[in-house]
Design goal:
This protein is of the alpha/beta class. Helix 17 links the parallel strand 5 and strand 6. The protein starts with a helix and ends with a helix.
Length: about 725
């Protein structure tokens, strides 16, 4: 056990040193399993008596008590390294509580084996001084220190059970070599592409980003019109900046899984697959062995979702928090930043502020529709460096579409289908999965090459559909694509016409980026905004659509007017009470009070008397929780089934299997999985990961409406 504690301490020190907390990290690692001084390796996972019950008392609380004087609230990391961060209140009882005889004997044996622990326990405070001056800095620092401890513990434990000589940690990345490879392969890729009328603007934007990367670490903003090469330009900024300032990795976060898949493929081609981790699965692993397989972002270039990033940053569970220490001394690219939820902007922007000011992180905000975050109080004092000096001029040069408004009288979806069916090539973007299925069905009835995209399809299926659509467009073959919002941000397709269901202004502009994307068409692309009477929309659209209708529409501005767009965001934040919303205010109050459980799960209802928490006041990027479901009915060669079998055999302890299964995983809404007819068609795998046993539609993927019809018949 002493060997495990020393190894974990060394790793935790290494992980926390980049943000000035190496001594604290070493102390946490050395004493995290203090109560198990008498336990062997197998005892750590299943109990010395072989029953699965833990032995030797509460090993976590002993370590926390031993560290309390020196580490203060950081002792919560030790207390929660299996079950998750709790609240400062959890340490209250330890202040005046002496060790009982059994714990004292265990502590004496531990200190005999680890004499280096004595000066830590009796030494000076371990919390960095800057953390002690600001409760929010302290809260963020504790999150990163907890992450480092969990990662180190899991790496050392995993190495033991894999029969390895020591923990497997990737060596520090040679970012300069990666940058050279990126620039070389980018040049080759561009040389093979046909020329485009927008190439000049793309080259100018790229040069501006590379020049801006020489600026000091901090907060940057890249306003990049749709079709301006933002994917490569943002990566170039990040890599050049990381090389100049010795930062360890680049983390690109995007709002939709579809963009994650597309961008990750681009970056793999430019950097090499071995250097890029694509992470969007959100499997919650239960049990010590399963948690060993949790993702830890041990790579120089990570592509993930904003949901994964921020739910982890403000989460509390070990598996989800394990990767957070990788955010320190990194470059974070937030792509399509306009998609961040308004009700959570205050804690999100405050978290980014803390990372840039105290933990060596640089943040680049990239979007064609840059939100006016500077109007929010949390960022009014922030220095934001613009990569482009005069963005309006760039947008004017890249204006390639004209808007048409089909709002009054309202059409029906059938009437929309009639118009779309008359086109050779068109994209239709709607606001719900059900509308996408219905409209695709209506178009199928009218004939033509109809394709469909939604989040009920697994990533491998979506990727195949997108590839076919791109091939048809390139060959000028007929194709009608119906999609949910997942298509509209960053997905590389170029249609002559786009039909977009009425939505918030930023979504309208993003959808317009799929029309005449390359600027090669003789006429501007058509963007038809329609408000179908029988179409649905998420409840969260109500206020943004109302503000959109005030600022944009017939006789008013188009959504690509930057001056009006800034006014739109200002009005939107006022209408939604973003600065003073109850949810954001509650989250910030609980963060200052170091109540990690209340931040992640919500505060107690009725001061805890009900035994329940209020999730509506918790930090959750998606209020509709999802369940990861692996589909084995899509791939014809049985790869998904084989990977599932291996995962079950290893109790979920292998990260490589989780990564491979992402291609076949559908994030199903929890409310749908709670339906008895839907739940009966899945089986547990590990943690909350499930296997789909029902039919998988060749066009729609998982179709809960068809399931309901079958149950009726």
């Amino acid at each position: 056990m002493a060997g495990h504690l020393r190894s974990t301490a060394a790793l935790t020190r290494n992980f926390t040193a980049p943000f000035g907390a190496g001594d604290l990290g070493a102390a946490l690692g050395l004493l995290h399993d203090a109560g198990k001084a008498d336990c062997g390796w197998q005892d750590r996972l299943r109990g010395a008596d072989g029953t699965g019950n833990r032995v030797g008392g509460d090993h976590k609380s002993l370590g926390a008590r031993l560290l309390l004087d020196a580490a203060g609230p950081a002792a919560l990391a030790v207390l929660g390294h299996h079950g998750g961060l709790g609240a400062l209140e959890d340490l209250r009882g330890f202040v005046a509580k002496d060790l009982d005889p059994a714990d004292r004997a265990t502590a004496d044996r531990l200190l005999a084996e680890l004499p280096e622990a004595r000066p830590i326990i009796d030494g000076e405070p371990l919390i960095p001084e800057a953390w002690r001056r600001d409760p929010l800095v302290l809260e963020m620092g504790l999150r990163l220190a907890f992450s480092a401890l969990v990662d180190a513990d899991h790496l050392d434990t995993g190495a033991h059970f894999a029969g390895l000589a020591g923990p497997q940690v990737a060596p520090p990345a040679d970012m300069a070599t990666l940058l050279r490879r990126f620039e070389h392969r980018r040049a080759a890729l561009l040389a093979d592409r046909p020329a485009s009328p927008v190439d000049g603007v793309r080259a100018e934007l790229y040069a501006a980003a590379v020049a801006a990367a020489a600026g000091p670490p901090g907060l940057y903003r890249l306003p990049a019109p749709t079709g301006s090469g933002k994917t490569m330009t943002a990566a170039a900024f990040a890599l050049h900046h990381a090389v100049r300032y010795g930062q360890s990795r680049v983390i690109v976060a995007v709002p939709f899984v579809t963009i994650t898949e597309q961008n990750a493929q681009v970056y793999r081609e430019l950097l090499g697959a071995e250097n890029v981790v694509e992470h969007h699965s959100a499997v919650e692993q239960d049990g010590d062995r399963a948690r060993l397989g949790a993702e830890n972002w041990d790579a120089p270039f990570v592509v993930t979702t904003t949901v994964q990033l921020f739910d982890s940053l403000f989460g509390r569970k070990p598996a989800r928090s394990r990767k957070l220490h990788r955010l320190a001394n990194a470059v974070i690219v937030l792509d399509e930043v306009q998609a961040l939820p308004a009700q959570l902007l205050v804690p999100i922007l405050d978290g980014l502020r803390l990372l840039t000011e105290h933990f060596g992180t640089t943040v680049l905000l990239a979007s064609a529709t840059q939100p006016a975050f500077q109007h929010l109080q949390v960022w009014q004092q922030m220095r934001i460096t613009d990569v482009v000096d005069q963005p309006a001029a760039v947008y004017d040069r890249l204006r390639r579409v004209r808007y048409e408004w089909w709002l009054d009288p309202q059409p029906t979806l059938a009437e929309v289908a009639d118009r779309v069916a008359s086109q050779r090539q068109a994209l239709v973007v709607v606001n719900t999965v059900r509308d996408a299925r219905e409209l695709a069905g209506l178009l199928n009835e009218r004939g033509g090459a109809v394709r469909h995209l939604s989040t009920r399809m697994c990533p491998a299926h979506r990727r195949a559909v997108l590839a076919e659509v791109q091939d048809r467009l390139a060959a000028d073959e007929p194709v009608l694509l119906v999609s949910t919002q997942l298509i509209e941000a960053g997905v590389d397709v170029d249609f002559p016409a786009v039909y977009r269901a009425l939505a918030p202004a930023d979504s309208l502009q993003q959808a317009a980026g799929r029309a005449n994307r390359e600027g090669r068409r003789a006429e501007p692309g058509r963007v038809v905004v329609f408000d179908a009477a029988d179409a649905g929309a998420p409840p969260s659209y109500r206020t943004p659509v109302g503000v959109t209708s005030i600022c944009f529409g017939p006789g008013r501005a188009d959504p690509d007017d930057l001056i009006v767009l800034e006014d739109y965001y200002r009005r939107l934040y006022e209408a939604m009470g973003t600065d003073r919303g109850q949810r954001a205010t509650t989250i910030q109050r609980n963060r200052r009070g170091l109540d990690f459980a209340a931040v992640a799960d919500g505060p107690w209802i009725e001061a805890g008397e009900s035994g329940a928490r209020n999730p509506r006041l918790a930090f959750r990027m998606l209020d509709d929780e999802t369940v990861p479901v692996v589909v084995t009915g899509y791939d014809g060669d049985g790869e998904a089934a084989r990977l599932l079998a291996e995962l079950r055999a290893t109790d979920g302890a292998r990260r490589d299997l989780f990564r491979a299964l992402q291609r076949f995983t559908v994030a199903m809404p929890e409310r749908l999985m709670a339906r008895p007819d839907v739940a009966a068609l899945s089986a547990p795998v590990v943690g909350d990961l499930r296997e789909w046993l029902g039919d998988y539609h060749p066009q729609h993927g998982i179709d809960e409406d068809e399931i309901a019809k079958e149950m009726v018949w």
